[in-house]
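Thread: Newbie trying to understand structure tokens

Hi all, I'm a second-year student working on a class project, and my supervisor (Dr. K.) asked me to get a predicted structure for one chain before our next meeting. I've only ever worked with sequences, so writing a 3D structure as a token string is new to me. If someone could post the tokens and maybe explain what I'm looking at, I'd be very grateful. Here's the chain:
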Amino acid sequence: MIMSHETFEAYSRKSIPDTRNYVAAYFTLPVESLDRVNEIVESGLKAGGTEPIPMIDHGFMQLRRIEDFDGHTWDIIFMDLSKFRKE
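---
Reply by user tm_fold:
Sure, no problem. This is what the structure looks like when written as tokens:
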């Protein structure tokens, strides 16, 4: 659920951490293709997010990281399962 900081604090009764300086949560979103990874990250950048590191390419997995405007970290990944051995 998306809500203002004031509403969130009223429900949780806890302070919201400064997510620009402290990690509060780390999210990973697996998607169906590298094109989809790029589409999501590019949309996030246009909306004001930042990309703190370049894409990581492990051959079987590509990962792009984006931080949203609240400072939360999102890894958008594609894993090519065809590159794993089938036994």
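A couple of things are worth pointing out once you decode it. The chain has one domain: 19-83. The two ends are 42 Å apart (CA to CA). Feel free to ask follow-ups in this thread.
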